[in-house]
C-alpha cells in the first residue's frame, strides 16, 4: 500500500522513499512491458490521489483539476497513458490504410499523381503510428518522433497541394519538371531546417506549433481557392469537397485551443481533435 502525503511533490517523495528506494514495490508485467517504473508509478498514483483530494475539498477549489508536468492527469488503461488518443489515432491510421487500398484498386499505375497520393497515405500512416506510440507512453523520444512525423505529414500536405493544384506532375511543358524538382528541394530543405532547429538549437513547443499551423493555413488557403474556382466553373457539388474538407480540419484543430481537463479522466480536447480528423480523412480519399 502506498503511503502518500496530500501535496503532490511531497507525496511523490514519500512514495519513492517508501516503495522504490527500499525495494518494496514490484509492478505488474503489463506495466513493466510499457516501461513503467516504480518512480513513474508513484508519480501517476500521486497525481490521481492529489486530484481526488482537490476535487473533494470543501469549500470547492477554483481549479480542482490541474496539470502535472504540463499534462492533464489521465486515467490509464492497461498501462496506456491516453487510451482515447491512442484509439482515435488508430482510427485515422485505418482511414489512411483503406484510402491506400482504394487508390491501388481504382487508379492505374501509370497515372502521374498516383505516387503522390500513395506517399500522402503512407506518411499519414506513419504519423498516426508515432502518435499512438507517444500517447501510449510519453517519453522524450516518443514525443519527438510524434512531432517530427506529424510535421512531415503536414509539410507533405503543402508539397502535394501545389503539385496537384498546378499539376506539376505533368511532364510537359518541361518547365514543370524543373518547378517540381525545385519545389521538392525547397520542401526537403524546410523540413531538415525545422528538425535541425528543434534538435540542435532549442526544443520549442511554441515554434513547432506555429510552424505547423502556418503550413496548414497556407495549404488550406490553396485548397479553398482551388475549390471555389472549380465549383464556379463546373457547378458540381464534388468540386467543392477539398475546400469543405480543409474547413472541417480547421474546425477540428481549433479544439486544441479549448484545452479542458479530460472528461472522466479519459477524453480531452487533444483526443477530440484526433477524432475530428477521421471523417475528413475518409472523405479526402473519395
Question: What's the helix and strand layout?
Answer:
Blueprint: H1 8-20, H2 29-33, H3 38-56, H4 83-106, H5 114-136, H6 140-165, H7 174-201, H8 205-234, H9 241-254, H10 269-276, H11 278-284
Helical fraction? 55-70%
Total strands: 0
Q: Assign an overall shape.
A: elongated
What is the residue-mean pLDDT, rounded to a whole number?
90
Describe the largest sheet. Answer: none
Which characteristics define this entry?
286 residues; mainly alpha; 69% helix; disordered N terminus
Describe this structure as you would to a colleague.
Helices cover 69% and strands 0% of the residues. Helix 6 runs antiparallel to helix 7. It contains 11 helices and no strands. The protein is mostly helical. The N and C termini lie far apart (55 Å). It has helices spanning 8-20, 29-33, 38-56, 83-106, 114-136, 140-165, 174-201, 205-234, 241-254, 269-276, 278-284. The longest helix is centred in the C-terminal third of the chain and has 30 residues, at 205-234.
Kindly summarize this structure in a few lines:
By secondary structure, this protein is mainly α. Helix content is 69%, strand content 0%. Helix 4 packs antiparallel against helix 5 (114-136), helix 4 packs parallel to helix 11 (278-284) and helix 8 (205-234) packs antiparallel against helix 9 (241-254).
Amino acid at each position: 500500500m502506498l503511503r502518500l502525503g496530500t501535496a503532490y511533490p511531497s507525496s511523490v517523495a514519500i512514495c519513492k522513499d517508501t516503495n522504490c528506494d527500499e525495494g518494496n514495490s514490484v509492478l505488474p508485467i503489463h506495466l513493466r512491458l510499457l516501461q513503467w517504473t516504480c518512480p513513474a508509478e508513484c508519480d501517476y498514483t500521486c497525481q490521481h490521489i492529489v486530484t481526488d483530494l482537490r476535487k473533494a475539498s470543501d469549500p470547492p477549489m477554483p481549479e480542482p483539476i490541474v496539470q502535472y508536468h504540463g499534462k492533464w492527469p489521465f486515467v490509464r488503461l492497461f498501462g496506456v497513458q491516453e487510451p482515447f488518443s491512442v484509439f482515435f489515432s488508430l482510427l485515422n491510421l485505418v482511414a489512411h490504410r483503406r484510402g491506400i487500398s482504394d487508390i491501388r484498386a481504382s487508379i492505374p499505375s501509370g497515372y502521374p499523381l498516383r505516387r503522390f497520393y500513395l506517399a500522402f497515405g503512407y506518411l499519414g500512416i506513419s504519423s498516426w503510428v508515432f502518435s499512438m506510440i507517444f500517447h501510449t507512453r510519453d517519453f522524450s523520444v516518443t514525443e519527438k518522433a510524434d512531432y517530427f512525423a506529424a510535421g512531415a505529414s503536414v509539410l507533405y500536405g503543402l508539397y502535394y497541394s501545389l503539385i496537384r493544384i498546378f499539376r506539376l506532375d505533368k511532364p510537359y511543358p518541361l518547365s514543370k519538371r524543373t518547378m517540381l524538382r525545385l519545389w521538392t528541394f525547397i520542401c526537403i530543405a524546410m523540413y531538415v531546417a525545422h528538425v535541425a532547429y528543434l534538435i540542435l538549437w532549442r526544443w520549442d513547443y511554441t515554434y513547432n506549433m506555429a510552424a505547423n499551423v502556418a503550413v496548414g493555413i497556407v495549404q488550406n488557403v490553396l485548397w479553398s481557392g482551388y475549390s471555389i474556382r472549380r465549383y464556379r466553373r463546373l457547378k458540381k457539388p464534388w468540386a467543392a469537397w477539398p475546400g469543405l474538407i480543409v474547413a472541417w480540419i480547421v474546425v477540428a484543430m481549433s479544439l486544441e485551443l479549448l484545452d479542458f481537463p479530460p472528461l472522466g479522466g479519459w477524453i480531452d480536447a487533444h483526443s477530440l481533435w484526433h477524432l475530428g480528423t477521421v471523417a475528413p480523412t475518409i472523405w479526402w480519399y473519395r
